[in-house]
Amino acid sequence: MSATFTSPSAIHRRWLPVLVILLAVAAGAVWSWGRWLDPIIDFGREIYVPWRLVEGDALYREIDYLNGPFSPTFNCIWLRIFGRSLRALFVLNLLILTVAALLIHDLQAKATDGFTALIGALTFVGVFAYGQYEYIANSNWMAPYSHDLPHGIVLTLLGLALLYRAVARDNSRLYLLSGACLGLVFLTKAEVFLASLIGFGCGMGVIWMRHKRTERRRVFSISAWWLGGVLCPILLALIWLLWQLPAPDAFRGLAGTWPHVLGGSFSSIPAYPYFMGIDNIPGNSWRIVKWLVGYGACGGLVWAICRYLPKRVLEPFPVRAAAMLVGAVLTVVLVRGTPLFLLDYARPWQILLLATLTGVALGVWRQRHDQSPPEVQVLRVAGIVFSLVLLAKMILFVRVWQYGFALAMPAAQIIVALVFWWLPRRLPLAFQRTFCRALAGGIWIGLVAAHVMTTHHFYQEKRHVVGTGGDAFLADSRGAMFEEARRYLSDRIQPGDKLLVVPEGILLNYLLQTPADMPVVALIPWIYQLYREEALLARIADVQPEWLVIVHRDMSEEGARFFGRDYARETAGHLARHYEYIHRIGAMPLSSESFGILIGRRRADIPPESGVTEPPAETTFNPHSPSEN
Fold it and tell me: CA-CA distance, 479 to 629, in Å (whole number)?
């Protein structure tokens, strides 16, 4: 009998990077705890919807959710087990973030090498996991504006890891599980599923190419297992929805975002061309070219230094350390001195990924140029295609902020692989490759440090505590007013009351444990594009909320600035006639640049209306100043 022995050095190589990643995740969480969300915009839906599901409401019946059912249902199950609180949801998101970092490390190590894998995982933690690079928060993995994005991406990463192992072991059950991950992605968000489907499809295409004609029966078998895995969660979700809902609503819920995507509802939003970068195609294309030239010049300079300086200059450790330090300092100075750097530097990534995909695909096609094992080829092709297609939503304006916290994260991993793995491999000697990585590492340290410093700039403004206990978090000056509104209403709202917050701020409903009893969670311009105003107004008239809160929210990016003045005029007229305004916090909302909140109570002297009312002429939301009681 023989026993296997694992050397201490092998154990260190395997587990030390994992420990470093876990420490980085923990440090980021401690540093940023409770500062990730915006009290007004977007994130309120992410806790309100699963809370209402816990309370017995149903998706696509009481809540007209626009994406697939996976994320709110998953969050609902978690809250049901571990308690209904923001803290419980944050803990779940921290676990998902940790899994994502470990999966990134695992996949990068298989596609490139261990050092590049560690850099990739730390890039995710330092740039994407906790970052905030604009005034509005929610573009991070701890409090995402839509959980469907990180959930869909993590499921895709898990599916890729399973597909790699399925090819390596020729294991049918692993193909089944890999396909099931894609099926679950279908139940999240359309753009993630489309990228995953195309990426996995290209990976399966590589499998077909690598098998000989005599092995076609096996290829058909593994394809059937994989497709069966894709269909299983979709069919189970349909059965679950049919159990709760009429068939039309069940199929509509299963379709998720797709009817709106295919129907053009989202693309008609005025800000959508800006988000994609197609509002100024010549200008954005020129920016891509300029950044592409900059990337080429920087990469060429690094390669030339490493290639042509002699060994006696590049090999000593002090020289490598000095090069790393200089690279880090110069990068921080450049980024901090160029305000638009962090907003713009990802613009050419789609071109770099397309070039990378072309090279990898040609190597796979001409197998003599790529002697990698088939599982590695499958992983590289599927991963690059997935990362590239995810950028389609920002095709001419790729960025790491806003959508980019999720959609650009996989692309960043390809860039890391190009810089730390592909570029050094173009150098013939070991000391040249080592110096190249050292210099690139210095630039990388400076870039990540600049991201952290920018995030810290926004986080240090968040000094006001909102909520209590497990629902407490930190916010900027708007949070102080939001908390004052919460305290004012908590002393007055009675059990069974309803609260309507317009145009946005459903988080207040959750903090007060008071439902809105509305199918939508915000009354913002694009919601009025999806639904008829008459239908929304009829619902308000039917619910008759006892309380009304008007929160200042400038919606200029959607083409209509203020609720009640530039859109939703009939709704505003109805509310103005049926509510008396009893308390104001800050400036008069929806009337200037200044933030404020207005609290109203339903008038008892006006009977409920059964239909839609006509607004008075020139309806604006500028009621008389309320009494400050």
Answer: 20
Do the Cβ atoms of 128 and 154 come closer than 8 Å?
Answer: no
Query: Strand order in 596-602's β-sheet?
Result: 499-502, 547-551, 596-602, 579-586
Alpha carbons 487 and 485: distance in angstroms, whole number: 5
Q: In this structure, what token pair is assigned to residue 111?
A: 């596609």
**pTM value?**
0.92
Contact between 554 and 135 under an 8 Å Cβ cutoff? The reply is no
Q: What is the rounded average pLDDT for all residues in the chain?
A: 90
Do the beta carbons of residue 245 and residue 60 sit within 8 Å? yes
At 621, the pLDDT band (50, 70, 90 cuts) reads very low
CA-nearest of 16, 26, 28, 29 to 118 is 16
The torsion angles phi and psi of 584, rounded to 5 degrees, stand at -125, 140
Q: What is the dihedral of CA 12, 18, 24, 29, to 10 degrees?
A: -140
Q: Where are the alpha helices (DSSP H) in 112-215?
A: 114-123, 148-169, 172-186, 190-210
- DSSP character at residue 607: P
pLDDT tens for 113-157 read 999 999 999 999 999 999 999 888 889 999 999 999 999 999 999
Residues 6+ apart with CB under 8 A from 162: 174, 177, 178, 181
Phi then psi for 268, rounded to 5 degrees? -85, -5
* Residues 629 and 583 sit within 8 Å (Cβ to Cβ): yes
Q: Identify whether the C-beta of residue 582 lies closer than 8 Å to the C-beta of residue 627.
A: yes
DSSP of 473-503, one letter per residue? EEE-HHHHHHHHHHHHHHTTPPTT--EEEES
Lowest mean pLDDT among 5-19, 80-94, 136-150, 584-598: 5-19
Question: CA 206, 212, 217, 222 torsion: positive or negative?
Answer: negative
Q: Nearest Cα to 526, choosing from 503, 549, 544, 507?
A: 503
- pLDDT, residue 14, reads 78
Which residues on adjacent β-strands are paired with residue 509?
none
Model confidence pLDDT, tens digit, residues 318-344:
998 998 999 899 888 888 777 677 788
Q: What gap in Å lies between CA 193 and CA 160, rounded to an integer?
A: 13
What's the full length of the chain, in residues? 629
Residue 408 in tokens: 């650009």
Closest CA to 424 of 413, 435, 412, 415: 435
CA–CA distance, 423 with 305 (Å, rounded to integer): 13
For the chain, how many helices (H) and strands (E)?
A: 27, 6
Over 90: is that where the pLDDT of 530 sits?
no
Cβ(353)–Cβ(387) below 8 Å: yes
